[in-house]
Amino acid sequence: MKKYLFLALIAIGLSSCYTTTYTIGNGAQIGVTVKEKNLFLVNGLLPIKISDPQNMAGGAANFTVETKQSFIDGLILGLTGGLVAPTTVTVTK
Questions:
Q1: Cys bridge to 27: 3, 23, 56, 78, which one at CB 3.0-4.6 A?
Q2: Is 4 left (phi over 0), alpha (psi -120 to 50) or beta?
Q3: 3 falls within a domain
Q4: What gap in Å lies between CA 74 and CA 52, rounded to an integer?
Q5: Is the pLDDT reported for residue 12 higher than 70?
Q6: What is the pLDDT averaged over residues 33-48?
Q7: Strand pairing of 46-49 and 84-92?
């Protein structure tokens, strides 16, 4: 039993938050950031709220988009058993 508990703790400790970053045009120029949450159900299968990076950029031609599952997002995912899966989107102009 201790062996399985130890392996579970190692698996949890080695898991990480994922981040995806992409650049539109020349990337962020001004340094103004806008954050929104994406919300999915059933471990990401059913989108409830999806942010639009183009609208978040406010018409800017050059910006950087970072989509990540932060620790809090992962905690919500774990506490709901995969039912609610939020991610955070940050647009930097």
A1: 23
A2: alpha
A3: no
A4: 22
A5: no
A6: 92
A7: unpaired
Structural domain contains residue 1: no
Q: What is the pTM of this model?
A: 0.77
State how far the Cα of 92 lies from the Cα of 25, in Å rounded to an integer. Answer: 12
Measured in degrees and rounded to the nearest 5, phi and psi for residue 80 equal: -95, 5
- Which domain covers residue 34, as residue numbers? 18-92
Helix, strand and coil content of the chain, in percent to the nearest 5, comes to 30, 35, 35
**pLDDT for 6 beyond 70:** yes
Contacts of 25 (CB under 8 A, 6+ apart): 61, 62, 63
